[in-house]
Design a protein that fits this description.
By secondary structure, this protein is α/β, with parallel strands linked by helices. It contains five helices and five strands, in the order E-E-E-H-E-H-E-H-H-H.
Length: about 160
């Protein structure tokens, strides 16, 4: 089973592909970020996200995808921009017929570290350990996306429902 985890944004979209092997272990297949220049108009940035994500889906053919839900307490403008990017991400996955589950940040933290209030360094180290990597994945958005993919595989294993 191959899951594509997505950490949404407009400036940077993190992605991580994680495969669950027959023995139940997890393997990082590929991870990175889609970066859009802030100098471009929003419609062009969204087009880059859509095209790059579509190419990634076509290349790796994930069985499913997990997308982190948005959580913004203060900056409404940032929330609106990220929501636009998230909409393009959901559209690309839907058009490719990839089943999607969405996860709240605290659920991802709970799944990876056992604590819904885990801090970023703890999460990154747990992602490294769970995937058997020598180093913490960089940049941070890619590590976050790998955490979402791991959460999605855990969720699938136990019924396929986001909590």
């Amino acid at each position: 089973m191959l899951s594509l985890g997505i950490d949404p944004g407009t400036a940077t979209v993190g992605y991580g592909l994680v495969r669950e092997l027959s023995d139940g272990s997890l393997q990082a297949v590929h991870y990175g970020v889609i970066v859009t220049p802030p100098s471009l108009p929003m419609n062009e940035r969204l087009e880059i996200i859509f095209k790059d994500l579509t190419a990634l889906i076509e290349q790796y053919k994930p069985d499913r995808a997990g997308v982190e839900e948005l959580f913004f307490a203060k900056n409404v403008t940032t929330a609106i921009n990220v929501a636009q990017g998230r909409g393009v991400i959901l559209l690309a996955l839907t058009l490719a017929n990839v089943p999607i589950l969405e996860y709240k940040p605290n659920i991802v933290k709970q799944s990876i570290s056992g604590y819904g209030g885990a801090k970023k360094p703890q999460m990154q180290e747990m992602v490294r350990i769970l995937l058997g990597l020598e180093k913490i994945p960089k940049p941070d958005d890619a590590a976050d996306a790998l955490a979402v993919a791991i959460t999605d595989l855990h969720s699938y294993r136990y019924g396929g429902y986001a909590v």
